[in-house]
């Protein structure tokens, strides 16, 4: 087709997707231009979906893409119908006059020219674990270099672009990184389905790469692991085909660090414990958010079902705390920067504290390409690489301590890429354990439409959870929590309605039917406790390298059959909960069959398992890599199991435990 013919075809399809009352020429032109720009450069699937042949699936795909284009920046008064018109201000990015300054700015960031020859410690990664390690070491008087692969992206983009967040399903590169210049990864599905995927693809298992790492844009659910989560093998045995094991530490070992993180970072929530929770030494410092119309319904329904409930613990201020503002309750949270810093991320807590000591250098746009070790196995420095102004730069920096906190995939990759003659398979990998036991979180849940409006657009969203299902489920290994979801963006809301079939495929965008459905939609979701497998892993591809010369990564493995059973349990119970709450139409998440894609994503863990036996683990209980006593790991890769809850509080607490242990033995 000629370009003019493609443009005409896209215009016709856009007009078809919109409600006639919305199908103005200027809006059709704008959406057509947006779809063409994206579809011919970044995401061809957009153009394919718009130009697809007729049929129910094609109609649903068409309206999903046009809906993404329509709601790319939230709502606008000139492109909504009567149902959504009252919600334009609430369901759009907060205006700039409501933003508060970042605690870290360009003045705090170093350049390659600022590098010293030697530091006491190099911390690789500025997310949850890296931030805590940097603060602990800097406050102990160490000179610390923090490396971050990402940068400090334009804040306006992180607050206003709804399609470029880690949670969007648009297929576009998130502003929080990694971007279009990131290397591909290989993903092996099953025995022979090998794919090369970009970082915008969910199979890449992206976690944000920016100052603050994933905590810059995360949802901030602050759950503790339960005592049984740390003793899964002792509790359930080891299912066939799994590598389930107990942690080498107990809940009692972690509890003081959980408490200190909750108090220093600030966690809000309630005091009602779940049946599997461990004891607390101190209560949470802040109470929960007020109930929403949906959470009130769900609380009553849970009582009918005999389920206990509790407020969702969040690393989000419900009142001014630790020098940060209270949450303004805007309708966009997870996937975005927080406009007022109410959400506790590394960039608002530990990193500013580390910088305030004067002992910390924070270098963005830099990767560790190799850890240098002496014949004894001790790390002696790190090779760095980055790009600036289109040119690649390299440097070597010496250090007495190296702390890996780059996430489960990248931390494993660096150890494998640092092979030497003495350690030809990578550092800490003499027994082929680095990269194994990759895990994340599979989710179960259900979506529903109510007869009445239940969406109040008061963020952050998750307010009520049941933790009854974390354990004690007959015939199931482990389990997980269920909670109401974050307030979705308008773009993701319309996607969910189309994907679940809760609106007909031919329902026009902007029509009364679609807009009313967007205010009557609810979802309950929860992560399951995955049963780890040694065959789920990160591999280094020595024959393929990125532009910096680093080996590319292959992800392999599948969810275990026990995981699929646990996922179905949560979906069934979520549907029952929504039904008891009065939902008119309910769609449980469909079942999955093995083999599935490797598990990873934003909750990635494993790959550098903690243990007491070097033949079965990568790090000691103190976080030190076996055979390399001054290489320490302080991220989720040390997790033996990942719990049926969000892992960030455990990453923070364990990083504090490990880094203070390092300081105490200096």
How would you sum up this structure, described in words?
This protein is an alpha/beta fold and 666 residues long. 26% of the residues lie in helices and 16% in strands. The protein has helices spanning 3-17, 25-39, 44-50, 56-70, 128-139, 155-160, 232-236, 251-266, 293-305, 350-356, 408-417, 490-500, 512-518, 561-580, 648-664; strands at 118-124, 144-147, 185-189, 193-197, 310-311, 360-363, 366-373, 379-388, 391-404, 443-449, 464-466, 482-484, 521-527, 537-545, 551-556, 585-588, 624-625, 628-633.
Protein topology:
Blueprint: H1 3-17, H2 25-39, H3 44-50, H4 56-70, E1 118-124, H5 128-139, E2 144-147, H6 155-160, E3 185-189, E4 193-197, H7 232-236, H8 251-266, H9 293-305, E5 310-311, H10 350-356, E6 360-363, E7 366-373, E8 379-388, E9 391-404, H11 408-417, E10 443-449, E11 464-466, E12 482-484, H12 490-500, H13 512-518, E13 521-527, E14 537-545, E15 551-556, H14 561-580, E16 585-588, E17 624-625, E18 628-633, H15 648-664
Parallel strand pairs: 1-2, 1-9, 2-6, 3-15, 9-18
Antiparallel strand pairs: 3-4, 5-11, 7-8, 8-9, 10-13, 10-16, 11-12, 12-13, 14-15, 17-18
Helix pairs in contact: 1-2, 2-3, 4-12, 5-10, 5-15, 8-15, 9-14
